[in-house]
Amino acid sequence: MFQVRFHGRGGQGVVTAAELLAVAAFREGRHAQAFPSFGSERTGAPVVSYCRIDDREIRTREPISAPDAVVIQDVTLIHQVDLFGGLAAAGYVLINTSRTFAELGLGELAARCQPDHLSTCPATELALEHVGRPVPNAALLGGLAALTDQVPLHAIGDALRDRFGPIVGERNLAAAAAAFEHVRAQREVVAGATAD
Amino acid sequence: MLQQIEGSRAIAEAVARCRPEVVCAYPISPQTHIIEAIGVMVKEGALAPCEYINVESEFAAMSVSIGASAAGARAYTATASQGLLFMIEAVYNAAGLGLPIVMTLANRAIGAPINIWNDHSDAMAVRDAGWIQLFAETNQEAADLHIQAFRLAEELSVPVMVCMDGFILTHAVEGVDLLDQDVVDAFLPPYEPRQVLDPEDPVSIGAMVGPEAFEEVRYLAHLRQLDALDRIPVIAAEFAAVSGRASGGLVRPYRLEDADTAIIAMGSVLGTIKDAVDQRRDAGERVGVLGITSFRPFPLEAVRAALAGVERVIVVEKAFSLGMGGVLATDVAMALGTSSLHTVVAGLGGRPITLASLTDMLARARADELATLSFLDLDEGVIARERARMASTRRSGPFAENVLRDLGRPREDHP
Description:
Strand order of the largest sheet of chain A: 2-3-1-4-5-6
Shape of chain B: globular
Oligomer: heterodimer
CATH class of the largest domain in chain B: Alpha Beta
Number of domains of chain B: 2
CATH superfamily of the largest domain in chain B: Thiamin diphosphate (ThDP)-binding fold, Pyr/PP domains
Distance between the termini of chain B: 53 Å
Shape of chain A: globular
């Protein structure tokens, strides 16, 4: 099973992100389950959502306390709420930012994680450029696809078109594709550095 | 077709395929997505003919459902938590009148303190109202149970509440296979009411029933719940034949065959419990699970049979009775049984409890003739005649009125 936890703020499409990822995995013939952690349905309040992906039926209903990947949609949550609790040793982290882990004060986290499992992506800027709205969720899903290889980008695209229709879906897919390339390029640099 | 959709959306789609003619509901979390989706379907004409009625409260929502059902329409509504409490008077009336309304209860805690999250306190608050209460383990089962619920409700002329865990199921996006419309149509025939308000053939529904007949009318409602114990497995089996899925039924055992320890629970937590049981099984422990799908009527026999050979029973429940303890556990204890305990229902609706009747009761107890559950001074003849009327004709009319009419006639008129 692969478990993803999304952290963001109300209005950033955190719940939708988990649902889109589940639909994309389902499109690939896998079992998936997405659900929100409710109680803070206010614009700007911290929101958490979850997505599980597996090759067999998913029966558990508990919140994800030991995620394989954490997606941070809003950097202002860092050092404010527990974002990385239970993160697996070989877990993945994707953050919506142009800054580095060290610049965000996450040097210790970066030190104990595998370098090619960490990534940053200016998802809000990509969303503004391609969608025209500062909603980073679709772009981050593209980045997550490149980082974890759990779902292919075209499945994310299918999920986006399902959800938003052909026009807005394509724009979101453009943002996701740009983020996918950004993260892929980042990983190549890391792989090159490791090889050196 | 198998789809990856939100639980609420799956319920709206399943309900729409049951072709409700009147939907009346008032929004409350975590049920709102269901009725919003149905409202859109009605507005867009995707669900037709159907009237979606906006009202000012849950009390009105259930009252409109009662009126619609009494007029012969297939009626549906949904609520949760405080909304259920606000409609509770009408909830009892729907059951007492024997109207086959189907309602989704998106289970949520009851305040104070106010809390929007899931537990089963709301379902427990109307446990004794006379509704059939079915609990869904997954969104797939929740969708399937709604289709079975309309069939069950209308066959027996009794309302059915499908309980699904709020947020945990209603807001979860997972795979749900929705039956095609023609399959649902074949499974669920058009509504043929037992009683209907018709200007061409006027009847009154909702008569006042005094001490002379109240116990008999209540007992008839109890018998319908017992009828449901027979019908629920049959309907589930017929549903399995057309869908290929085991949804519904009375109880659902899991790895119980050789178990010395059984966990009993209702609703979505069964999934997590099964994962826990698999882990313990891998460690060599003989643990099993018994899911309760039908909470009302409570399947005493099926629970007793499933637990035969089990040494330790653990009931995990999302509600409790303050000052007492477990609610489901109390029912399970009754299923496990104590031969020395008898319940005698007496004094319903003002029926006098007389010295002679109590003396007779004690005599029967002394002779070991007292059943586990009995009803003091019950007029068996009235019961038998109304059951015969119901068996002989579908349009048998409101049973409270029938019982009153029966009692009002001179004895020699009785067949």
